[in-house]
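Exercise (ungraded).
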Amino acid sequence: MDEFLKKQLFQQTRRGFLKKASLGFGSIALSSMLGPTNSFANSLISGNPSNNGINNILKGTHFPAKAKRVIYLFQSGGPSQLETFDYKPALSKWHAQEIPDSVRGMQRNSGMVTDQSTFPLVKSIYDFKQYGQSGAWVSELFPHTAKVVDDLCIIKSMHTDAINHEPAVMFVQSGSQISGRPSIGSWLSYGLGSDNENLPNFVVMLSKGSSGGAQPLSSAAWGNGFLPSHHQGVQFRSGKDPVLYLNNPHGVHDHDRRRALNYIKDFNNEQYNLWNDPEIQSKINQYEMAYRMQNSVPDAVDVSDEPEHIYKLYGEDARKPGTYAANCLQARRLAEKDVKFIQLYHTGWDQHGNLPGAIKSQAMDTDQATAGLITDLKQRGLLEDTLVIWGGEFGRTSFSQGRLTATNYGRDHHPGCFTMWMAGAGVKPGMVYGETDDFSYNVVRNGVHIHDFQATLLHLLGMDHERLTFKHQGRRYRLTDVHGHVIKDILA
Amino acid sequence: MIALDFSTFLGRFHPLFVHMPIGFVFLAILLEWWQSFKKLEKISSLISIAWFLSGLSAIMAALCGWYLGETGLYEEEQLFLHRWLGIVLVPIFFAGWWLKKNYYNYSKIIQHGFNLLIIVLLSIEGHQGGNLTHGDTYLTEFAPEPLQNLMGAKNEVAQEKQLINPDSVKVYEDLIYPIFENSCINCHGDEVKRGGLNMAYADSLMLGGSNNNMIIEGNAEGSELFRRITLPQKSIKFMPPTKKVLTYDQIKTIEWWINQGASFEATLTDVEISKNMKPVLLRQYGLNTEPKPWYEKVKVSPLDSTKISAIQKQGFKVKVLGEKIPLLDISYTGKDLTLEKMKTLEMASSHITWLVLSGTNVKDEYLSGLIKFSNLTRLELDNTQISDNGVFHLKNASHLEILNLYNTLVSKVSLPVIKELPGLKRVYLSETKVLPEDVKSFNEDDSKLSVIITSKD
């Protein structure tokens, strides 16, 4: 171990010396003569070694950022496209008939239906109508969303690679089915930095669907992966302590806490100078962020100043902490405070059986609050530069899983096609993009792969998805891996 | 051809030889300086030998350089000075040889003056050569920004001369003719005129072939051209009769052109671009026919970074809009905004395009400077104490597109000012003293401007 240490130190000093002597001193001297600060403003990646990641890694966006922040309403479990936005009248004709092989093709099905001997197609038990100027079809489950449909850009042709929850959620969130890559919010934090130093860049809020039996979510979905750990999502809980372990222990005065933190910081900096481990800087950042959050978080989550008409808008549920509606209201408040990425998860959309009843209660949980959020953001002018995303990790099959009866059926996981929508900053409002076949089984026009969605998301935030990279284990990683095309057609 | 190849081969040795006279001459000059520094009595004969060698190698360099220049890979204007200065340098080197050989016949002033002249000429010559090989921006591209400004370097990226600007795109020439050229003119051109049809020229195309109704202006369905390209592919009359049929987008473009009157002169701005043609033009030609945002149209050079940091020092957050768009997005948070702070923004008056003062203590009079902000397109004043007096300062903001006055003290007195703003697209007036009925007429008679206002109940 001693040997190793010595070697490390030696290399560090030798290399450091040569680098500093050849380039460092000269250019620093030159730039300080010519202009006191910011001499390297023309290079996009800031070369400043003291940039410990509080500041953004990109000096600026690649192109104008239409969206300055994102609210991602993740509908966890895989909401059925067939009962929500993808209206398929042809299924009435085919109802209860076997899905044709020509439609089913080679598409993958999950192991849960392999024992099934029959695959009867099933139409939506809920009716659809057209709404708004755009005439988009919306199911009767979403009367409130239907009212704001002219603000939405509905993408019916999403498709993904994963067929089960955990990998599919990871795929949407991090661009890889295997956990360990940074989540979208972490990438944004890493790339763009913070607009509000008092709150985390990336906030996560969870709510449980009332249909029950929800798939668990792993915190890797909002993990920082190989990025410095202060880029990870910070989970806000409902109730007295929105962020755990934030309050001072009983008897510890704020003043003492500050002094202690100062000393810890000095020690940590000492270690950092010795080791140059970026995680030490992360640690310092996190302590400081936690200290600032002692004041900012209680203020941010205190909804007592919200007037009555706001609760009318979001629904009565918004008064109950921990509900989806309360989280939506909270999301708006955080967006106002310039939190960059606000990620909501609402679980319970996994309807293998008893779909009609379960999806109805899910819709009841979310519909009014979602539409309320859009309306609220719009009236405040926040929808100009806030991007709202609604969607799950995959879709559901057009054939029934389990027994099809007159009033009951189920649907299995279906990566082949599903629906998502976006609204706000830089996205065309009142648009329906992409098409599936008459069975909502295959994409037939303008397919949007998860990587395309991610590329578009980064584009809206002003970044070229091919140029936001992090070098790890010898190669540069991207959110979109080696794929992804920006969907130009949906950009306003 | 072989001679030319061989001369090109020789020419490529120019970069090799070109460094030799430079090296020799610098060696000679340095030696001479060293001798005068050491106050040595006798001038070394090595110095004149070095000058002679530099002359010899300069001949080689000039010769190879001449051949290299003849390859035509360099711009004549740029090449001129480099070529002839290089040739002039050859006799000058030999003159140096003569001068140093007879060192004591000439005064020290002449000797040193000559050295200085050579250094200047060589620098010019070398720099010119470098620019020819590596491009004008090679030296300045990665220079620190203040140094770049000092050297007057322009690192702006040259605009691609593609179909970018809709008013310079000719519908027939740039969009339609290329389709014909690719798929039709092989059989319907000057050489081969199948069916008597020549599509190479506008008049011969209109004349048609055996069928007279080749193109009926404004009626694609009735035009033989359109009918032929949209027949079932199995039909014997289907065109083009090869495997390379027209794409959906190409057919749509032709249909649209005929329906728009089949003009041979019209530019893209003269014709109506229907909603479903826009994506076609975007896909096929990369032509964005949506109106461009102001920030993409306006051209300003980047703001000096010293000014940016001066603004940052006042507590503003400053973001450059994009790599190629040096306009600024500036925001402020907190309740300690002052008139002085706002005054510093005037340094960037033509650069600020987005200004966010939401939730600050901004006062009406702070906005008086905004009159100079010629490129302001988005102004967010929501959740502030701004009133009608503040809005009054905006009356010259001709490019303002988005104005957020949510939760301010603005009343309907401001409405005439808002209405007069020529570029305004959206104004947010909820939670103000303006009532929804005040703006009712607004939304009706001006479709371009939408007023976003909700009543509390």
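Further reading is listed at the end of the chapter. For now, observe: Chain A touches chain B at residues 27, 30-31, 34-44, 59-65, 195-196, 307, 309, 336, 338, 375, 378-381, 384, 462, 488-489 (CB under 8 Å). Residues 2-34 of chain A form the longest helix (33 residues).
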